[in-house]
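Justification of resources, computational component.

The compute hours requested in this renewal are based largely on the per-chain cost of generating structure records like the one below. Each record pairs the submitted sequence with a full structure-token output. That output is archived, and it is also reused by downstream analysis tasks.
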Amino acid sequence: MSDTGDALWNEAVDPSDYAESNDRYWQVLLEQYKLCVEMADRVSARRSLTNTFFLSLNSAVVAVVAAVSGRTLADMSVLLLLAGLVILIAQCVAWFVIVRSYRQLNTAKWAVIGAFEERLPAFAYSRAEWGALGEGRDWRKYLPLTHVEQWVPVIFSVSYVMGFCALATP
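The structure output for this chain reads:
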């Protein structure tokens, strides 16, 4: 059994602790499993909302920097451009760290789901689905979304730095 499996199971509890019947034990186990799958799905939904938030925030900062200038971007002061760049880069760093954190959280959640499946009749997610996707090893078969998501803030940051250099150069 994996470390996750060892940490998951309460060895002090077994089916005999459910006085009504052994069926009750399996009902509780299945409900806990369903809750774990639901929570993993919710983390993915929150990650999606986070991406939308940071994309909107980056767009808003770019719009504000452009609107505040009252002139063409080429005529803006270097300090105003630098302030906007620092804000945008800080947002991108936060965005990257948060997406990475969600990825780590979901990795742990799916490990727990896999440990649950060791006691269930089927390995629906941990072996069957993940195996059908090549475990994310071959990008042509399946490219995990979190791998792509982590590049978006990096690409934005590089674009901002290049834009700053282009606009700050006389």
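The two ends are 64 Å apart (CA to CA). The longest helix spans residues 22-69.
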